[in-house]
Design a protein that fits this description.
The protein has 456 residues and is mainly α. It contains 18 helices and 6 strands. It has 3 domains: 93 residues, Fumarase C, Chain B, domain 1 (Orthogonal Bundle); 203 residues, Fumarase C, Chain A, domain 2 (Up-down Bundle), CATH 1.20.200.10; 99 residues, Orthogonal Bundle (Ribonucleotide Reductase Protein R1, domain 1). Helix 6 runs antiparallel to helix 7 and helix 6 runs parallel beside helix 12. The chain starts with 11 loop residues before the first helix and ends with a helix. The structure holds arginine.
Length: 456
């Protein structure tokens, strides 16, 4: 390709290090698509003869069909996917293939291909997340009334419903989807035609190629277009945040599946046994999702550090942009599916959750709220009175609701029997009707909104 300038070939080490084809072959579809848009524009603008442009377009179609059928045959000497396509084009149509690279460089080419790939990755992840949300919403609806312990500090705090818990993750995923959507919108500018770094003297039409490739507009600055990778970083940041959410849910799956909790029974399809302990059913899928998130966050850091010291415009360092993005995409895509499958098929032991929700004086806040509402006692004082009741119950080894009324009245004589109505976990969750609260009616309302948003 640059034989004119060089007397000797590259060393084997250089060839191996320099070649990106082992990984950038994933860009073949985008590369051919962008080349087709480019050559159509070259023909239309009269930069190459229309007959030549047509021959090139036909050759590109053939290569697309070949790759579709049999994949890309790697040749390290041809460096990257761009050279592979051009080389094959030359084999098919002869020297006229050389006209394709008019008014373009691999620098704008790779930036364009990669943007197209990442844009599509945003769409794929969005679809997978929508399916995942549908699973959460179905569980949210089914378990809208099922009470479980709500925790702060992983200590029993107040009862909540399992449906409410699922819908919390629905909200996180909703924001994750909006982050991918933002990233997609921001990245949707075409680098094609920026050429090596300075633009070109040929009368190109960058608006036409941008439009043909579904971009909103051409990137406004050629130096920026070929050298920034913030679009990839936007994707990785969204992926890192999303994987963080998945990891928290995965952690809860691991915890809930452990015998002391026994809140869920893992589905066979998403767990493994042990080669030595016959009783085992391990939450491997959830653990891998939790572990994958660490690697996804690592990809974001990796690319940020690659980028941070690069002077404008293109440097070969930028070739290190692809592996982190491919890795993050692959890990995130499988994580969404695996965690979705785990949640969809797990058995939820709602009796056990309800019993656990009654432990730890979880309705103490309801007791204090009753004192405020019925006894007209200031909350701070009510908190103190309730604390004394909890201490007494704890000393006796009974639940708050099991303390005799006379004992409660010795603590404060404004207490009457109606306090017992608020001490059950059902009455507790039913009372939490503030907007966004855990009351079953609220959860069902949130589920209805979510179904509408998902088109279900
Ligand atoms: N394979 C390169 C990359 O992935 C693109 C080629 C640009 N090469 C160059 N020498 N300017 O970034």
């Amino acid at each position: 390709m640059w034989g004119g300038r060089f007397a000797e070939g590259a060393s084997a080490i250089m060839t191996e290090m320099n070649a990106s084809i082992p990984f950038d072959k994933r860009l073949w579809r985008e590369d051919i698509t962008a080349s087709k848009a480019h050559v159509a524009m070259l023909g239309k603008q009269g930069i190459v003869e229309q007959a030549d442009a047509d021959a090139i377009a036909r050759g590109l179609d053939q290569i697309m069909a070949e790759y579709e059928a049999g994949g890309v045959q790697e040749d390290l000497a041809l460096e990257d996917i761009h050279m592979h396509v051009e080389h094959r084009l030359t084999e098919i149509i002869g020297p006229v293939a050389g006209r394709l690279h008019t008014a373009r460089s691999r620098n704008d080419q790779v930036a364009t291909d990669f943007r197209l790939w990442v844009r599509n990755a945003c769409d794929e992840i969005d679809r997978a997340l929508a399916d995942f949300q549908a699973i959460l919403v179905a569980k949210g609806e089914r378990h809208a009334k099922d009470v479980m312990p709500g925790f702060t500090h992983l200590q029993s705090a107040q009862p909540v419903t399992l449906g409410h818990h699922f819908m919390a993750y629905y909200e996180m995923i909703r924001r994750d989807r909006s982050r991918f959507a933002d990233a997609r919108k921001r990245m949707n500018e075409s680098p094609l035609g920026a050429a090596a770094l300075a633009g070109t003297s040929f009368p190109t039409d960058r608006h036409a190629t941008a439009k043909a490739l579904g971009f909103d507009r051409p990137a406004a600055n050629s130096l920026d277009a070929v050298s920034d990778r913030d679009f990839a970083l936007d994707f990785l940041m969204a992926a890192a945040q999303c994987s963080l959410h998945l990891s928290r849910l995965a952690e809860e799956v691991v915890l809930w599946a452990s015998q002391p909790f026994a809140f869920i029974k893992l589905p066979d399809q998403y767990s493994t046994g042990s080669s030595i302990m016959p009783q085992k059913r391990n939450p491997d899928a959830a653990e891998l999702v939790r572990g994958h998130s660490g690697r996804i966050m690592g990809t974001m850091t990796a690319l940020m550090v690659v980028m941070k010291g690069l002077p404008l415009a293109y440097s070969k360092d930028l070739q290190n942009d692809k592996i982190p993005v491919f890795e993050a995409y692959d890990l995130l895509a499988i994580s969404i599916l695996a965690l979705g499958g785990t949640i969809e098929h797990a058995g939820f032991n709602t009796d056990r959750m309800r019993a656990a929700s009654e432990a730890g004086f979880s309705t103490a806040t309801d007791f204090a709220d009753w004192l405020v509402r019925v006894g007209k006692i200031p909350f701070r004082e009510a908190h103190h009175i309730t604390g004394r009741a909890v201490k007494l119950a704890e000393d006796e080894g009974v639940a708050l609701s099991e303390l005799p009324l006379e004992v409660l009245q010795q603590i404060d004589n404004r207490i009457d029997a109606s306090v017992f109505d608020v001490l059950t976990v059902d009455s507790s969750v039913a009372s939490r009707t503030s907007y966004g609260g855990t009351a079953p009616v609220n959860v069902l309302a949130q589920v209805a909104e979510a179904k509408k948003a998902l088109g279900l």
